[in-house]
Write a structure and sequence with these properties.
The two termini are 27 Å apart. The mean pLDDT is 85. This protein has nine helices and no strands. Helix 2 runs antiparallel to helix 3 and helix 4 packs across helix 6. By secondary structure, it is mainly α.
């Protein structure tokens, strides 16, 4: 995971997926090595260590960035990652995203505008609902997608 993130390219959006996959892979290895055990004390300890470590680096701004990854809202992504929840349906990410937005936009009117922009993005409404906008969520790098399709959401 560290090698994947040690780059000049934007990669924050990949961290959530890599972290979830790593936890599942570690649990699978541990479970495969332990015989006749639906509940493994060792697996539970390892999972707790991994989750505690994740909690230290899982910040509101990271959650906001993950929520704004257009790739994570596509049907292709959902099919490829059936064990993961999209950022807009994940309670922890949603809570932290809202916290971050409140801190970044203390003015109520601006915050409402940001919330509406996010709702349009997440729900594929208005300028985000066009055929190419939806299709390109899977085909373009997230930064390039935002450059091309994010003009209608200046706050995001």
């Amino acid at each position: 995971m560290m090698r994947s993130c040690d780059t000049d390219k934007p990669c924050l959006h990949l961290v959530y997926e890599m972290w979830d996959n790593m936890i599942i892979e570690v649990e699978t290895i541990i479970f495969g090595n332990e015989q006749n055990s639906d509940e493994s004390c060792f697996r539970n300890v390892v999972r707790k260590v991994l989750e505690d470590r994740w909690s230290k680096s899982n910040t509101p701004s990271h959650c906001l960035a993950h929520s704004l990854n257009p790739m994570c809202t596509t049907e292709d992504w959902r099919r490829e990652h059936p064990h993961l929840t999209t950022p807009d349906h994940d309670p922890e990410i949603t809570k932290m995203r809202k916290f971050c937005i409140k801190r970044l936009f203390p003015d109520v009117d601006t915050r409402i505008a940001v919330t509406l922009e996010f709702a349009n993005f997440s729900g594929c409404f208005e300028e985000f609902g066009g055929e190419y906008s939806i299709r390109d969520r899977s085909n373009l790098d997230p930064l390039k997608w935002w450059v091309d399709y994010g003009i209608g959401a200046p706050h995001l």
